[in-house]
Write a structure and sequence with these properties.
Layout lengths: L4 E5 L4 H12 L3 E5 L12 E4 L7 H15 L4 E4 L14 H26 L6 E5 L12 H20 L5 E7 L5 H6 L11 H11 L11 E4 L4
Parallel strand pairs: 1-2, 1-4, 2-3, 4-5, 5-6, 6-7
């Protein structure tokens, strides 16, 4: 990945940080975009754009365009930005469904739309989305989250078909990710069976690499040590 320019949305989360660190270690230039304010100072190979609401298409375009202008190109977009909420379908609040739709699906859509004009000019244009194993069959209380992530799966397939031969578009579907937040919310779970951010980062960066040029439209489960 030496010299590749990679945009990572949701870059300040546990997974975003792991992907950024691994990409930098492999010689990539990284631009992190997040709704939270930027915390990492800019360097020659890394910039951070904070305070960006990717559910707003105009903000997404400004952020992506500024990255391409800064580095002179854009080779890969990794859509990690998202959120989780537990809400029963029958008696829940519509605002939770709207929030999941905006933060999981629309952030990926708007970032992808903004990045595509730049990615098609790269010889290795890549989009990697984050879906969810839980969206393959929703359990109780998982309706809003699963519906939004199922939308990410369908977005991945549609973009892959629309841009076949020009950009590869794939998604990873993690099971529960081993993060401090998930450990705090599920303290009795068997953490050893969860997928780690580092394991996910390896798969994500493979899909963003030259080696994955023949893979597009794939939804790849990443379940950790079962």
């Amino acid at each position: 990945m030496n010299g590749a320019v990679i945009v990572i949305t949701g870059a300040q989360g546990a997974l975003g940080r792991s992907v950024a660190d691994l990409a930098l270690a492999r010689g990539a230039h990284v631009a992190g975009i997040d709704h939270a304010q930027a915390e990492i100072p800019a360097s020659d190979d890394r910039i951070e754009l904070g305070g960006v609401d990717l559910s707003d298409p105009d903000q997404a375009k400004v952020a992506i365009d500024s990255v391409a202008a800064h580095f002179g190109t854009l080779d890969a977009l990794i859509n990690i930005a998202g959120a989780f909420a537990f809400e029963n379908a029958a008696d829940g609040d519509d605002s939770v469904w709207e929030k999941m739709h905006a933060r999981n699906l629309m952030t990926a859509l708007h970032a992808s739309r903004a990045a595509i004009p730049h990615l098609v000019r790269s010889s290795t244009g890549r989009i990697v989305n984050i879906g969810a194993m839980g969206a393959l069959q929703a359990g109780a209380g998982m309706g809003p989250y699963a519906a939004s992530k199922s939308g990410v799966h369908r977005l991945t397939e549609a973009l892959a078909a629309e841009w076949k031969g020009k950009i590869t578009v794939n998604a990873v579907l993690p099971s529960t990710i081993d993060t401090p937040a998930n450990r705090a919310s599920m303290p009795k779970a068997d953490f050893d069976k969860w997928v780690t951010p580092q394991e996910l980062a390896e798969v994500i960066l493979f899909l963003a690499s030259d080696a994955a040029s023949g893979v597009t439209g794939a939804l790849i489960p990443v379940v950790g040590r079962v």
